[in-house]
Design goal:
128 residues; mainly alpha; 2 domains; zinc-finger; metal-binding; TraR/DksA family transcriptional regulator; DnaK_N; zinc
């Protein structure tokens, strides 16, 4: 029978992952704030009523940029939520355990994708 240590990361290892996640969370929040401020600037600029055909072109570009930024903001918000959920898993002791296989996810994978819930083996099976 496998020892409990092989099924979970140690407190020290979890602290390393927590630091990585908090760092990514901070950077992700700054990026999201930047996207939101850019969106609000576009919205503020869109309120002036200048006449002419250039305004129509600008409106089209503004709309496309707003859509792109909105999608980017949504992806960033999802990333932040995933990171926050990973912190919850650290606290409740389920962090680093693959939800599909029940095995530990490799440290290399967790360092690269600290919010993942899938081992690389499970992820590859999903993509087949």
């Amino acid at each position: 029978m496998m020892s409990e240590e092989k099924k979970r990361y140690s407190e020290e290892e979890l602290k390393e992952f927590e630091a990585i996640i908090n760092d990514k969370l901070e950077k992700a929040q700054i990026a999201l704030d930047d996207i939101k401020s850019t969106l609000s600037r576009i919205n503020d600029n869109g309120t002036d009523n200048t006449a002419g055909s250039t305004k129509v072109l600008e409106d089209g570009a503004d709309t496309a940029e707003k859509e792109n930024l909105s999608q980017l903001a949504a992806r960033q918000q999802k990333f932040i939520t995933n990171l926050e959920n990973a912190l919850v898993r650290i606290k409740n002791g389920t962090y680093g355990v693959c939800v599909d296989t029940g095995n530990l996810i490799s440290k290399e994978r967790l360092r690269a994708v600290p919010h993942t819930m899938h081992s690389i083996e499970a992820k590859l099976k999903q993509n087949q």
